[in-house]
TrEMBL record:
<dbReference type="InterPro" id="IPR020617">
    <property type="entry name" value="Thiolase_C"/>
</dbReference>
<feature type="domain" description="Thiolase C-terminal">
    <location>
        <begin position="293"/>
        <end position="413"/>
    </location>
</feature>
<dbReference type="InterPro" id="IPR020613">
    <property type="entry name" value="Thiolase_CS"/>
</dbReference>
<dbReference type="Pfam" id="PF02803">
    <property type="entry name" value="Thiolase_C"/>
</dbReference>
<dbReference type="InterPro" id="IPR016039">
    <property type="entry name" value="Thiolase-like"/>
</dbReference>
<keyword id="KW-0012">Acyltransferase</keyword>
<dbReference type="InterPro" id="IPR050215">
    <property type="entry name" value="Thiolase-like_sf_Thiolase"/>
</dbReference>
<comment type="pathway">
    <text>Lipid metabolism; fatty acid metabolism.</text>
</comment>
<dbReference type="InterPro" id="IPR020616">
    <property type="entry name" value="Thiolase_N"/>
</dbReference>
<protein>
    <recommendedName>
        <fullName>3-ketoacyl-CoA thiolase</fullName>
    </recommendedName>
</protein>
<dbReference type="InterPro" id="IPR002155">
    <property type="entry name" value="Thiolase"/>
</dbReference>
<feature type="domain" description="Thiolase N-terminal">
    <location>
        <begin position="30"/>
        <end position="285"/>
    </location>
</feature>
<comment type="similarity">
    <text>Belongs to the thiolase-like superfamily. Thiolase family.</text>
</comment>
<dbReference type="InterPro" id="IPR020615">
    <property type="entry name" value="Thiolase_acyl_enz_int_AS"/>
</dbReference>
<dbReference type="Pfam" id="PF00108">
    <property type="entry name" value="Thiolase_N"/>
</dbReference>
<keyword id="KW-0808">Transferase</keyword>
Length: 416
């Protein structure tokens, strides 16, 4: 771990570790100047159900150009995190061009399952630190309406014979039930945390909190009778169920009764959702040269591996790792955004790490408004910085579990 700390010190010139070090400003800091997201809409029936993945990309690129106030020709590279899009490299490049980025701005795609949006941000941040670019754009996007993860994964006989490797092909619902059973997470705890997520999201939406991070999306809607497509404006999340209570959630039947204790339900697991988010990053000296507002800085990202059968507890590995890397403790963190893939894993991580629930997902999470796979890692940054500025806090940690047995976490500091 000392070697890791030395690496972080190298990547953040002029600083060591600890909270005071994180707050210092250096010309080579990797700063965030924009973090926005689309509304999150229910896959198959919500506001984006008739919108293609390349159309979601094009729209978020257009907003990134407009909201960043930076000449798109100055962007040195774009990285797009997406999971299910089968032709992602083609769509991302074409969408960037159609949105207004000149052809000299390169684009790549990245896929590390549920962390893909964060990996896109990390990729751009690392390129800036290495001096390869001065400005970059990270995007996370997923159309779960258009692309399903229902395709069977068929492994070789050699992999099937390996007791750990073969678990990589198992459904995520199975991993949720494994976590609940292995760590004795009760259905009551799961429903209680899920209800809290809905209640917090409802309050945040009704009080206008999300309106400060959401950019209205112009998307296509198909007429069920004629098949013709027309445009409409989507301005808010459509998966938040108002009036949700723990008592109401206890009445929902198990989604996976064949595994474990059968405690995971459609009410205490993340919603299948469409959405997009974008984060612009640049070297601090470049931001000051351009005169753009700085929201905060990315300090570093950590990724951990663990057994695929309990992949959901990844944040319990990644969060301590990233805190150790930068020399702070959980008490130094003002806000945590921990992805609620399933209530089982979310409850475990909060309890195992001893996190103050009043600092975690304070405006709800994926159980309440959805988890568009590739989008979430970037969406958490938009949501986290929005709330961090509202509270005038300093440190944000984002984290998520990752399919096949991994976890990721990142540390950000608000500009003061």
């Amino acid at each position: 771990m000392e070697r890791v700390r030395q690496l972080v010190s190298h990547l953040t010139p002029g600083s060591s570790t600890g909270l005071a070090a994180l707050e210092r400003k250096n010309p080579d800091d990797v700063v965030i100047t924009m973090a926005i997201r689309s509304p999150l809409c229910k896959a198959g029936k919500g506001g984006f159900k008739d919108t293609r993945s390349d159309e979601l990309m094009t729209e978020i690129f257009k907003h990134a150009i407009a909201r960043s106030t930076v000449d798109p020709g100055l962007v040195g590279d774009i990285t797009v995190g997406t999971v299910l899009t089968p032709s992602a490299p083609y769509e991302a490049r074409a969408a960037a061009l159609a949105a207004g980025f000149p052809d000299h701005v390169p684009v790549q795609t990245i896929n590390r399952f549920c962390s893909s949006g964060l990996m896109a941000v990390t990729d751009i941040a690392n390129k800036i630190r290495a001096g390869q670019i001065a400005i970059g754009l990270a995007v996370g996007v997923e159309s779960m309406s258009q692309h399903s993860d229902a395709n069977a994964r068929e492994f070789s006989e050699e992999i099937k014979a390996h007791p750990v490797a073969r678990d990589c092909a198992m459904p995520m619902g199975w991993t949720s039930e494994n976590v609940a059973a292995d760590f004795d997470i009760s259905r009551a705890e799961m429903d209680e945390f899920a209800a809290l997520s809905y209640q917090r999201a409802e309050h945040a939406e009704k009080s206008g909190v999300f309106a400060r991070e959401i950019v209205p999306f112009t998307v296509f809607v198909k007429d069920p009778e004629t098949g013709k497509r027309t445009t409409k404006l989507v301005i808010k999340d459509d998966g938040i169920r108002y009036g949700t209570t723990k008592e109401g959630l206890t009445k929902i039947r198990p989604a996976f009764p064949q595994w474990g204790r059968g405690q995971t339900t459609g009410g205490n697991a993340s919603q299948v959702t469409d959405g997009a988010a974008a984060v612009m990053l640049m070297r601090r000296s470049k931001a000051e040269e351009l005169g753009v507002k700085i929201l905060g800085k990315h300090v570093t990202t950590a990724v951990a591996g663990l057994a695929p059968r309990i992949m959901g507890i990844g944040p319990a590995y990644a969060i301590p790792m990233v805190l150790e890397m930068v020399g702070i403790t959980k008490d130094d963190v003002d806000l945590f955004e921990v992805n609620e893939a399933f209530a089982s894993q979310y409850v475990y991580c909060v309890k195992q790490l001893g996190l103050d629930v009043e600092k975690v997902n304070v405006n709800g999470g994926a159980i309440a408004f959805g988890h568009p796979l590739g989008c979430t890692g970037a969406r958490q940054i938009a949501t986290g910085f929005n709330e961090l500025h509202r509270r005038k806090g300093k440190v944000l940690v984002t984290s998520m579990c990752i399919g096949t047995g991994m976890g990721a976490a990142a540390v950000f500091v608000r500009e003061t």
